[in-house]
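Quarterly update from the structural biology core.
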Amino acid sequence: MARSLTDKNNQRGFTLLEMIATLVILSILSVSAIPIMRNTVKRQREYELRIALRELRGAIDRYRRFYEQFPNAIPIQERTESGYPRNLEILVEGFTPANMPTTKKIRFLRRIPIDPMTGTTDWGTRSYSDDPDSFGGLGDDVFDVYTKSEDIALDGKTRYRDW
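Predicted structure, tokenized:
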């Protein structure tokens, strides 16, 4: 069978112009997706920060309620004047209550959560006697916790440490 001249010219494939147009469109799409991905990652970290702060603050509150109900059960070396824990580690390590029939350790946290903004378990603390806007933890207890990250939240106004 003989091929006609028109069969040779009907080759399939992409032209250079079609390839360039496809690459330009893909580049535009990928460049526009990068900020969306960054915001998604940041939003997820914010969500994890809220959970970690809620967990830590809940454990601090449970410790304080225990102190209010059984003030003499907390060992003398661990007691503070305010009734809040001396540090975050006591919430994890726990203590054997004094003047109570049980010999089991009482713990308020399984572990100190990782700060998703800094990637460590090093949280900033405020004591009961500190100014509410301070970031020093000058007292001998832990009344509140905050992240040590200086970054600004997705709302563009607040710093994570102010949460």
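The chain has one domain: 17-162.
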